[in-house]
Amino acid sequence: MKAVVSSFEAVAGNGAATVYTTLAQKAMSKYFRNLKDAIMGQIQATKKAMGEKDPVAPGTTKGETLRLKIIDQALRQQRAFQQMSMMETHPWRPQRGLPECSVSVLRAWLFEYFLHP
After folding, report:
1. Taking Cα atoms as reference points, which of 34, 8, 11, 10 lies closest to residue 20?
2. What is the 8-class DSSP label of residue 114?
3. What is the pLDDT of residues 4-26, one digit of tens each?
4. Which residues of 41-66 are buried (b: 16+ CB within 10 A; e: fewer)?
5. pLDDT (tens digit, 9 = 90+) per residue, 54-83?
6. pTM for this one?
7. Is the CB of residue 50 less than 8 Å from the CB of residue 67?
8. Do the beta carbons of residue 8 and residue 17 sit within 8 Å?
9. How far is it, in rounded angstroms, from Cα 67 to Cα 75?
């Protein structure tokens, strides 16, 4: 905004941009206030749809509901389990021998070509 004011005043003179910047600031303030009100309305509608009645339940902070806290904990726990299972199936150390899927392919090939000529 300062760059625009400086450019405008360089052409129109000092103080010429004051009226326009005041109008722009009021318009932006109104826009962001309306945006904030719309977002708050959506949050309240979501809380109501989820059955939240108490705005601040024990054990939660302002802006955090009990049900959302439980959902967050469940998602974190699920992500932790997924990470643990990935570590078990994909060890970071070298394997001894071939992976099971490779062994299965080789057994099938061996059975097909050598045991049934």
Report:
1. 8
2. I
3. 788 878 888 888 888 888 888 89
4. eeeeeebeeeeeeeeeeeeeeeeebe
5. 555 555 555 556 777 788 888 888 888 877
6. 0.40
7. yes
8. yes
9. 12
